[in-house]
Write a structure and sequence with these properties.
homotetramer, mainly alpha, Arc Repressor Mutant, subunit A, Tetracycline Repressor, domain 2, 2 domains, about 80% helix, DNA-binding
Chain lengths: ~210, ~210, ~210, ~210
DNA sequence: GATGAATGAGTATTCATTCAT
DNA sequence: TATGAATGAATACTCATTCAT
């Protein structure tokens, strides 16, 4: 391992350390009320050091999402490229994957959808924004591809697969945000997972041609 | 018209004037970057005057949502209580109503869903929060009622109607937020309405028992 | 009674009404936290109306003191001019008078001494400041006169009577402020009157020539 | 000198720098009209920096008093514990100490008494208020102790020593405030020291039993 | 790289005062 | 006179970001 590479690893380790801290703080206080100092303290670093690893607060925030998007894409591609599954099985696997990713790190998924629907997006650097757009596009593309298989197989209704992917994505994010907001208001028992399951079922059924 | 009443009207007119201005500014700059001074300028009032009509920035923001929620509830109740429609027709009317409300004032609907998924919710006065919760609850209840009719009629799948209402609501808000965020990113042509229609179709089909 | 005079009386009645309200509000919230609107509400008038009777908040505040100063001066003159009392009796009567005035309206006396030791003084109109200075000077003069009698009678120590009057005045106001501040801090039982009595006794004894 | 200690010193130096600036600005404009920006400018710092050393404006103001109270207490204890002085000498030393402290920093002493008789007191943090109360209590206690010696020695009149201490303290603060207010009004020659001396003399004489 | 003290621009909110009615 | 809606200047405080060490 070259010295260059070792440095790079060390650097990555630090970024992780910060991201972990940021995640805790953001989910604790929300984006606006979390200060860089809070995060620095949580990461046991100085405020200044954060800026050695992240250009600014917005980008640090967006970085949380980046990782989960990357993970999500891997999972989606895995389903999409799996040649052993028929279209219907793929859609089932797709919903399982989404649920898995959610359960892998709920906080960060909520962050992702918050980011997606927030002004923060406007403030990101061209570079980071491109990266996020790229990952989103690819993820959506993978989802669309899966639906497309079903459509081409004549199992699913004739709709634009991209539109279906958007709807699937919206359904997922909509439920995540709505259920987590209900928790803010009502401190309800957490029905999120049940709701997601039901939603995916209904959605899958809705995709099918009636005569089936 | 008594003098009292005239004053009350004048006051309401002012509130509207401010709300209109706030709507413009919020949707232009987003909640955090919109300053009270911006809004005052847009409303052609002094900053101090805003506080004669709204307790603070959060409550001004939330007030935007209040009106649309009230309107939404009226529309939903109208559908729900219409005795001439069978369950399926009601669900169709429901989606029409939601679309109407969206088209009535897209900006403000987006605001509503932003508010719903933001920390701002936590800062509202007990009073206003109660009002919003109340309207939301009633709206969701009306939706659930409609689904319930279909379930009891044996047309729809056996799921908890409240869960179905949540899903319907999430689907709606998810698409609104997602499509408007895509606009931020891509300045795309606006597919929102088409997407919503397709989504509602798929959802409705998914609700039905297979044997139908 | 001419119409002019009637108007003047009416005007004076209003001023009183405002002063009474202001007294309540100032003593309740302190000068800085009392708003003109508070006072207007208490006086059952509109904020604008206060300005028909008082030039501004500072002057309204100072007006409270003016009345008590006028009353104080009357009492002091009464003692000073009383030919039936010998010097020692006059000093005793003097302390009684001060105590009386305090008890007549403790709140307003505290206000007076707050005013005296505050920046507000700097903001008063020339006219009002002159009036206050004039009343203060006359009061101090009356006190000094009393002490002077004792000095000339050879009963009291040879000190400048004006200095003695200043000391007497300071002792009085110092105790008022100190004891009322202790109340703020400790919510103690109110020792003020006892303290004042003791103070005046000690002071009177201190005035006398030793050989007596 | 460890690095820790050096930092602590540096920090303390800064606090002093700010306190000196604040003293100038407060005594120039009074508490309410002095802005944090004024003070920052005077201290050649940024407004934000003030908050690194003082929690808020009130506490900065109160800090001025803290130091003089500490110094005062040292001086009072020194007199109180001095075994070479008889009671009468102690009272003389006491008045000298008070005068010394006044001359050491008149502006700050005036601030102290302003603070004591103001609403600001109510806004202080529990911690700071406790510290001030504690120092005041101890100072008053030391004074009371001195009077008590005279009383027990049968030289002074039989009064509650705490009451005598309160009176002494009130006399001191009353004169300080009154004379400094006269300066505001009249820009008089400064008689304060003379007045204080006379006051203390009269007071001391008043303490003694007549038969002495 | 790491620090953390210093920065200073940015803003919600208050409230004495005014003035059209 | 009386009103009270409107004003808008004034300001404490925050916090992302920088930079000398």
């Amino acid at each position: 391992m070259g010295i260059q590479e070792r440095k790079e690893r060390e650097r990555e380790r630090r970024r992780q350390q910060i991201i972990v801290a940021a995640k805790r703080v953001f989910s604790d206080k929300g984006f606006n009320r979390a200060t860089m100092e809070d995060i620095a303290k949580e990461a046991e670093l100085s405020p200044g050091s954060l800026y050695l690893y992240f250009k600014n607060k917005d980008e640090l925030y967006a970085s949380l999402s980046l990782r989960i998007l990357q993970y999500l894409l891997i999972r989606l591609d895995h389903v999409s490229l799996n040649k052993e599954l028929n279209p219907e099985q793929k859609v089932a696997a797709l919903t399982d994957a989404m649920l898995d990713v959610y359960e892998f790190d709920p906080v960060i998924i909520i962050n992702l959808f918050h980011l997606q629907s927030s002004e923060t997006l406007k403030n990101l650097s061209e570079e980071l924004l491109t990266e996020i757009k790229d990952l989103s596009r690819k993820s959506l593309g993978a989802i669309a591809g899966i639906f497309n298989e079903g459509i081409e197989a004549g199992i699913y209704i004739q709709e634009h697969p991209i539109a279906l992917a958007d709807i699937f994505w919206s359904l997922f994010s909509g439920i995540i945000l709505w259920e987590s907001s209900k928790n803010i208001i009502d401190k309800n028992k957490d029905y999120l997972k049940d709701t997601l399951k039901t939603a995916f079922e209904v959605f899958s059924r809705g995709l099918k041609k009636e005569e089936l």
